[in-house]
Amino acid sequence: MRVLNRGLMVWIVMGLVVSSVSSSPVAAAALKLATLVPEGSVWDKGLREMGAQWKRKTQGRVSLRIYAGGVAGSESDILRKMRIGQLHAAALTTTGLEEIDLAFAVLSMPLFYDSFEEFLYVLDGLSPQLEAKLEAKGYVLLHWGHGGWVRFFSRAPVHGIEDLRKQKIYVTAGADEMVSMWRENGFRPVPLAQTDIMTGFQTGMIDVLATTPLAALSLQWFRQASFMHETGLAPLSGATIIKLRDWNKITEADQKLLLADASALEERQRREIPAQDLIAIEEMSKRGLTVTPADPSAEWHSTARRIAESMRGKLVPAEFYDAAKALRDEYRSRIESSAEARESAESDAIAIAEPGGVSR
């Protein structure tokens, strides 16, 4: 993604484009879906389970064939193949979604969200506008996807901003605006093709990658970058989408069945992914990962937030940045009010319980 160096792609196993993804119409609604998520991963299994439910509930009228692990190419390749009819659907990270519309960059700004719950509140508020952006470009949202919380994985410890500035940070090749932004803030971005991430670590071309614990474990990146910074940078989200022209070939009754199963998958990811992210950290720690504590100084957070704010109107459309900030602040205000109400109730309960207090 352009945001967070577009290296927030935790769902990546690189491979060559295979000839089996050939151009064909959606005969009998046999949908071809491509994704970068690793084959056999929690996300891949979820998609395959959803596809099995589609086939069963539609009595075979709709089936889903999944090309996982990057065998259909990068997300740019996947979108190109969707445009020309070789593919019908895709499970994309925000990187791919940003190629459709920059509005999706609002979902992955660094240190903009404090928690998964806060992020979901903003996502739910923005979802109608984001879905409209997709539809305007000829796509239909099936469900949102969640991949965990992005952190810096590095070859040497990163405690603070100055440590990070000394190391070479992976940036997806072609993300020129992100390269410029990193450099303007004193960092050392290294643009590389997605297929060169592991090679980049092995040869010393890169030292740092921003990704999620689940991805680092699934793809074994942590063995090359064995230090993880404690601070979570941003949620890794995405979406499963289908071309509108292919969606319209499915009956309305079957569309409702498909959307119900897609929604169920999204809800399951919302419940399970955050916990699995923490489990991944525990597993990697048993195998040599070192978690470096967050820098208590204000510079770490102030620098990240300054970068996020600089994205407004440049990498993130101003109206979406402002809408996200309003929703985020609304959520924080509600949480603060709820906490104050609890404290007040607890104080009243203590006063009642004390000698001389009011009894009921």
Short description:
With 360 residues, the chain is α/β, with parallel strands linked by helices. It has helices at 42-57, 75-83, 94-100, 116-136, 161-165, 176-184, 197-203, 213-218, 244-247, 252-286, 298-310, 318-353, and strands spanning 30-35, 63-67, 89-93, 139-154, 168-172, 188-192, 208-211, 227-229, 234-243, 290-292. The longest helix has 36 residues, at 318-353.
How is this structure best described in words?
By secondary structure, the protein is of the alpha/beta class. The protein has one domain: Bacterial extracellular solute-binding protein, family 7 (D-Maltodextrin-Binding Protein, domain 2, 3-Layer(aba) Sandwich), CATH 3.40.190.170. It has helices at 42-57, 75-83, 94-100, 116-136, 161-165, 176-184, 197-203, 213-218, 244-247, 252-286, 298-310, 318-353, and strands at 30-35, 63-67, 89-93, 139-154, 168-172, 188-192, 208-211, 227-229, 234-243, 290-292. Strands 1, 2, 3, 4, 7, 8, 9 and 10 form an eight-stranded mixed beta sheet that branches. It has a two-stranded parallel sheet with strand order 5-6. β1 (30-35), α1 and β2 (63-67) form a beta-alpha-beta unit. The protein is globular and about 55 Å long.
Index terms:
single chain; 360 residues; alpha/beta; two-stranded parallel sheet; 10 strands
The CATH architecture classification is 3-Layer(aba) Sandwich
Stretches with pLDDT under 50, minimum 5 residues: 1-27
- Helix content estimate: 40-55%
Distance between the termini: 59 Å
Number of domains: 1
| CATH class type | Alpha Beta
CATH superfamily: Bacterial extracellular solute-binding protein, family 7
- The number of distinct β-strands equals 10
The total of helices stands at: 12
| Average pLDDT, all residues | 86
